[in-house]
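Bug #77: duplicate submission created two jobs. Keeping one. Sequence:
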Amino acid sequence: MQIQQRRHSLRVSKPPISTDYAEPAPDYASALADRQPQSAFAPRSATPEQTAITSTRTAFAWYALFRNSWSEALRQQVQTLQVPGKGWQRGLNLNRSVNDVIDGDTNAIVLESLAYIPGADAVSGLPEPCPSTLVLSRSNAMKLTYFSRFPLLAGLMALWLSLSGAQAATGLPAAEYAPRSGELTPREMTIARNAWQYFVANFQPTTGLVNAVNKYPSTTMWDSASYLAAMTAARELGIIDKAEFDRRMLKFLATLNKLDLFRNELPNKAYNTISGQKVNYQNKPGEIGFSALDIGRMLIWLKVIKERYPEYSNSIDNVVLGWDFSHVVDPCGTLYGAYLENGQPKYVQEGRLGYEEYGAAGFQLWGFNTCQASRPQPYELAEIYCVMVPYDSRDPRQTSQHNYVVSESYVLYGHGVWL
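Kept job's structure:
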């Protein structure tokens, strides 16, 4: 956030206030094969200035973290992107055109972010990084002690300090910003209620699942975990009552418990939300593999709900005990995803800096050793507007996995903490 604030203040011709950079990822509003990039996204040769975007989810995440003129400007910029009765659109492109896709993940993170504000003094819920990877100077330790009053910030700062402590300046980039806490304003409650409308409009009563994208009956474990996050936030904020929460949770867990798994191991990458069948990316019956990161996010929210609503403990335990984790995490704590090659499953390391640590936290909460996946190494630091920014140093030309630097994974790591 500090980098983007400085970048915007120094430019004469000012683009939209940006919160992230565009990734060449697919638009799930269309059924795309193999998650191929959209032509509308910037080419890989584009500079950061060409790919800066305003992400609705990240705008509200920064707004929830800090109360200052910058975070308020972010909120104002995306305020027009709400669609009454449907939720929030994804964001603004660099040319100020609207990315008008309405999806569950965006609206879930809006709810997660706003629910953090009144819950800022809650007890930390996500595990810390492996002790061997987190070495703090005395000054940084004192800063982290201060931020521990605000669990979301503590999670973010611990991860940031573990990345930058060895090579970067000792100053904490966010230290100059006052953390947020307190009750939501009427305007903020209106924002949250509109986000919840997405999960009303896209709820499938036959399965209890929710469409990942507006009116498209498909979902992933990541998006289903986002639904759990949204449901929990809506209950905590009083948007839905306990009866509605219970009705939705019971139906969801019943479906999750009987999903047809990929090779009888773990949930498939995609499911039809109407039938509950495992499907490919065209939403046709079939299996395509599993994602360790998607399952990690699901494990986080299953653990959160189990601890916060113990009446669901047995149902949640039954779900997790029915999964076979033999191929998703190895004895060294490395995470693996699966895909099919010539009809046979292939297991490959999954995750890059940020998302890898977030996914690992889910497995760690359920007792798995994830020290390899939880370590930030290998990484390098790039100086941008006098801030040292960590990035994954593994070469995508050799690994075929990209290492984008975005805000979402770090924000999500903190969101698991407010509960």
